[in-house]
Amino acid sequence: MSAETRGANMAAESSTLAIPVRELYTDCTRAKVVFYVGEQPDVEKTARRLFGRMPETWEYAGLAGAPDDAQVDVGTLCGGLYLDMYRPLTISYRAVELVRQRGGGPIVVIDGMQIHYTMQRKGLGLQIFARQLATARNLGVVRIETTAGRHRSENGYYTWPRFGFDGPLPPKVKRHLPLGLDQAQNVLDLMGCPKGRLWWRAYGTSLRLAFDVTAYSRSWDVFLRYLGRKGLPFL
Predict the structure, then answer these.
(1) What CATH number labels 3-167+206-230?
(2) Are 87 and 93 in contact (CB under 8 A)?
(3) pLDDT tens digits for 73-121?
């Protein structure tokens, strides 16, 4: 059986049977975790309040999606956690995450993610998010939010929905939807068909999106199917 077929089959099974998310990706990251000077006690107190338990040290790195060669600086900010993830001594990639309590549980806000152009289109962004998502689910995070930007050097408006992020279409976008797509209310309504994806790639805009981390969500279904189409073996 080819890797592509195996990945597709496993994605379908995961979506239907809700295979534990901890099996989605390797449990641990070997990334280095550094607490800001004097902040480790506050970090641990805040983490226990957010997650109901004390995370393992590597889980802070996992929550940032850190590759094994990364460093994650951890501190507190405005009653939540602050995670700054990067590859030391290089500009290969960097991401900043905020972890906060909101409504029904903890949420992660991806405050910014940059991948150097020499590292793009190699699956690094997907690997980072997959590790982040697996750790977030294990820690009881209910939602991951980000601003999906569209700029000259930024295509998050299209990439994040491919990963399962969703949000309501702005009125200015809905007014210009062509016949056949004009009933779409959310971004994933467009991303669910080839015509919609082509239209959104051409005319989509920056907007606020979220990934619903709760079990059986539409976000999970889209993400697992995306992995299956990529033929990735780590499901």
Answers:
(1) 3.40.630
(2) yes
(3) 999 999 999 999 999 988 789 999 999 998 889 999 999 888 876 677 7
